[in-house]
Amino acid sequence: MTHMAKNLDPQPAIESNFAVPDIRCAGCISKLENGLILSPQIISARVNFTTKQVVVHHIAGANMADIIAAFALLGFEAHQIEKNSIDNIQNDSKSLLMAMGVAGFAMMNIMLLSVSIWSGAEGSTRDMFHWLSAAIALPTIAYSGRPFFTSAWRALRHGGTNMDVPISIGVILASGLSLYETATHGPHAYFDGAVMLLFFLLTGRWLDSVMRDRARSGVTSLLKNMGNGAMVIDEKGHSHFVDSTALLPHMVMIIAAGERLPADGVIIYGKTQLDLSLLTGESQPCPANVNDKVLAGTLNIGSPIHVRITEIGAFTAIADIARLMGEAAQSKSRYVRIADRAAKLYAPAVHLLALLAFAGWMIMGAGVHQSLLIAVAVLIITCPCALGLAVPAAQIVTAGALMRSGILVKDGSALERLAEIDMAIFDKTGTLTMGRPEPVNLHDATDLQCALMLSLAQHSRHPLSKALTHALQQMNISPAIIEDIDEDAGMGIGAKWQDIDIFLGRHFNDEASNSPVNNDEETLSTNLFMDGKSVFTIFFTDNLRGDAKDVVHDLKLMNIPASIMSGDKAKAVAPITKLLGMTAQTAMLPQDKLAAIKRFEQAGHHVLMIGDGLNDGPALAAGHASMAPGSASDAGKNAADFIFMGDNLRPIIQAINAARKTKSIVRQNFQLAIGYNIFAVPLAIFGYVTPLIAALAMSGSSLIVVANALRLRGAAK
Amino acid sequence: MNGLIILIPIALGLGLLGLAAFFWTLKRGQYDDLDGAALRILLDGDGDEKQNEDKDASK
After folding, report:
1. Could you say which of A3, A97, A128 has the minimum Cβ distance to residue B26?
2. pTM
3. Antiparallel, parallel or unpaired: β A562-565 and A423-426
4. How many domains does one find in chain B?
5. How do residues A154-177 score in pLDDT, each as one tens digit?
């Protein structure tokens, strides 16, 4: 019926964007695009593979939960995201691409005219060609040169200099002088050189910006939609939704199961279990009762609770961590990128050289015009065409290679920094371990016990229940038929099976025994009770990531000592340090981790921080470079420079290797570019550089640099 | 020389046409998903027709 309504009465379609991180292949595209429209509310769907997003056109008033369920039915996890956030990000590269397109068009047309001049056009024909070139080149330079002119002007106004200053001066001087040449019927005009320079440099800029877009949209697509408010009860007992910005202390909010708390507060009604992993990194859910303090950002996984707000917004514990993260990230933003460091040396040297050439020829008595022409030739030939491409070309090729093997790179400087690290620090839970408990002794249970456990567990949202459900379903167990299902938050879930009371949880109806009887070994466990007697105990472990041992060993071989910093207690960390042979610091607060990293950095070390939780956020931001697994918390992913997918730690080694390879290719590119200058500058100084030679030298050196960078395509192996 | 008067505007016009086409494709978002475009060639048949068939079949 709904199908009919949709077809007969086409309502205006509404567009929503969803992030779907699991899109991996062509099959996923067709599965999503063809599968989603089967849902009655969805009119059409379009996958963007690059950004791992899906644009869904759906009928007005469609339920987002239904659409997300439609994704889930196809086996994809989807999160709704704001549409505008992506568009804004890409504007920058789009305008660069447009400038590049204009410069490319102009370059080709001017080159056409230039070829005629080089092949011997004389007199009025040459003049006409020069004028035509000028007519194309000048508007192009005005349009395409803006990114460089504005940045150069900004640098000069603040008394500094950057790579854009010699570029701008070179381009403006070259076109000014060429115009003068043209007007005075001179033989040499450098319009083609000036425009080609812009084209190559814009290519470099655009590559750089595309890489950052990709990583950023990758990160946004990983970010989950967090609740931005809560249901609040007023004095009359009515409840209504209040945006998180409008929440005030002393308000009472109802937090349903599965909701995140938007503010700090105290529980005034109900008892539940809270998932604190976002704050503490600990995977074990924590029981909470009336009068307990609860923190914003924690996830309620038990039953509904009423919370009286104590702290809001910037005063919450989570905001405190965010502030620490911001401060820590500032030290990183002071990192000077290789290209900028090169520019600092390069720009004054080039200007000095041009000035010397000008002065030299004046002293030799060549006249202002001739001397200026030589000086401009020097500026054009040394303009950092190849240098501008040297770094971004290498970095984008590496980033592409890493992305194909499931590693996202936030920006180019991250690769530069990763190549310099000399020690690694791991978080434990969720980083070295999977961060999800797995039952270990299910094969000891009888088939009936398994069936009962499955039917109970699949009715609970508790992490252990979820893990149990998953494991039992993998074993192809079919659930038993039960009734009277009742979950007692924090205790367990009970039901009736063939008139027998069954219960899955820690203790059956016996709160007093909630003492450290069976969790003294720091093992997670739960019991199946039948008729009040425990018939089976399921033990869970948080498994190490499969290749953790190899990776730690490989890091050692690479001369990068690794150690652990964990928020967990020493007892929980000890077995892992023993197994991996690493040193560890335990029971650390976010502030402690941050302070420790700062200490290492001040001692001259370059630290690679690998972590996942919000509690690692400040440390991730402070580390010289940082990585987070794809399963990390939003805060962790935001703070990290690299995000790797999958269950293995091998990507860490891959990324470090790739970063080091990139560094050496960048160095080679610089050597090539400088070698070219050593060859070409004397030609320019002695006045042999005609527009033809300038064009050949510039394009030749740029192509060599790009070709060299392409060697990095296999860097992620 | 006379040839040039005709040929040069034609050359420039074609160039401008190319630039206009580039801007058009850019505005239409054809460069938004370059990796996806490379994969879509592997998909069977015309997406739209197939989608409609599926839709009919599902009713």
Report:
1. A97
2. 0.74
3. parallel
4. 1
5. 988 888 777 788 788 888 888 898
